[in-house]
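Shipment paperwork, digital attachment
Item: protein structure file
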Amino acid sequence: MSNLIILDELRDLIPPLAKDERDQLEENIIRDGCREPLAVWKTANCDILLDGHNRLEICERNGIDYETERVAGIETQDQAVEWMVYNQIGRRNLEPFEKCRLVMPLEKIVAERAKENQGTRTDLPGNIVQNSAQSKTRDQMAALAGVSHDTYNKSKKIEEKADEETKALLSRKKKDGGISINEAYKRVRKEELQIPEQTDEEIQEIARAKRNVKWLCNLGRSIGQFPEHSWESWERKLPKLTRDLKKEGTVFDYDRIIDHQKFLKALAYYVKSNQK
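Attachment content:
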C-alpha cells in the first residue's frame, strides 16, 4: 500500500455508484480481494488517485490490501481530467445526462487547446472565430457523450439551473422513476419564465383563439380584401402562433398570447371594415 492523495475536484468528476452497484463491488472485493490496481498520477511529491475511489474506501474500511499503477503521460491536472473522463465514459453504463455531465469539465480544456492551435486569423471578426470554435467544441462533447448537440446544450442548462432533486431523477432509469433530459429541461424553462399553471378558463380562451385564427384565415381569403403582401406576412406567422397554443401542459409564453389576442382583434376590425 502507499499513501494516496485524493483531490476533491478530481473525485467529484466521477458519477457515484448506485447503492446496489456499490454493495456488489464491496461483496466482490471482500470475497476476491482488490484484483485491479488503483490508477494514480505520480508527481514528484505524491501519488494522486485518478481511478478506484470506491475500491480504496472499501479496502481501507475492511483492511484489504490493494496495489497502485501509474498512468503514463500525465503531467498536468488538465491531462488528468481528460484521462478520467475518457476512462469513465468507456466503462460505465451511465444515463444520458450523467454522460453529458461527465464530459462538461472537458469542454473548457478542449476549447482552450483549440484556441491555441487555431493560430491568429485576421480575415474573420473575433466573435465569428470564437462562436465557431465554441460550436465545434460542443459538437465534440456531444459526440463523446453519445447525444445530439441540442441534448448536450439542454443538459448544460439543467446542470446550471435545475435543483438537485431534478438532477437525481435524471440519474435513474425510466423504469425506476427517472425522467428524460427533455422533461427536466421543460421544468427548468418553466421555472425561468415563472409561468403559472393554466386555469380551465385560460385553456378555453386559448382554444377560442385557435378557432378565431382559422375563421379569420378563411374569411380573409373569401373576401379578398387584404393587401397581398400584408396577408402573406400574417399567414406565415399564424402557424407558429397556433403551434405555441397547441395543448394543455405546453410551456406558454403569456406575452406572446397577449400579443396574439391584440393581433386577432386588429385583424377582425380590418376584415369587418373592408367587407363589401
